[in-house]
Write a structure and sequence with these properties.
Layout: H1 2-16, H2 22-46, H3 51-77, H4 83-108, H5 120-136, H6 140-179
């Protein structure tokens, strides 16, 4: 279920968006995003959860998210014809990945980094809804404003996570120095 969902999201984003078929892409992607929303529920209900399953789900989520913003970047490089929005799409792609990486790396080091104003679901829902509405009503400004907002919010989230982990690391150093 997870793999099929990711393949569908990637296909929708990388086939429809670069050709300028934004609404069709959003509708296609949305159908497959729902499988991502229910795969964890299904695993819990059937008692088939595992650490590997959680790892695979998170990894494939990053691939799907990256494909969405890569598809939008290709749209802006092609029929959308805007270097500015091409760059903003790439900023969203990179910062979305770094947001997830920062949390995972922090947790791997024993810290917590569950802070931020741009969680994955927020980024995904906002870009898909605004891209779809922008295409439906011929208002590209909706996607453009969303790209600006997501680029800023994702960057702020990364900075917040770095700050929180830094504070935890300093507190840990201080505690170790006091104990020495």
């Amino acid at each position: 279920m997870t793999l099929v969902g990711t393949l569908g999201v990637c296909a929708g984003a990388l086939v429809f968006f670069p050709q300028g078929h934004l609404l069709a892409g959003v509708l296609f992607i949305t159908a497959f995003v729902f499988s991502d929303l229910i795969d964890g529920f299904m695993a819990r209900e059937t008692g088939r959860t595992s650490k590997f399953g959680a790892f695979l789900d998170s990894t494939l989520d990053r691939i799907g998210d990256g494909a969405i913003f890569a598809g939008l970047a290709l749209y802006w490089a092609g029929p959308g014809d805007s270097d500015l929005y091409l760059v903003l799409s790439l900023v969203c792609l990179v910062m979305g990945s770094v947001t997830s990486y920062a949390r995972a790396r922090a947790e791997g080091l024993g810290y917590e980094a569950k802070v931020g104003i741009a969680e994955r679901s927020d980024r995904l829902v906002s870009i898909l809804v605004m891209t779809g509405l922008g295409a439906l009503f011929d208002l590209p400004i909706l996607q453009q404003v969303t790209l600006w907002a997501l680029a800023a919010a994702s960057t702020i989230t990364v900075v917040q996570r770095i700050w929180v982990v830094r504070q935890q690391a300093l507190a840990e150093q201080d505690a170790a120095a006091e104990g020495a």
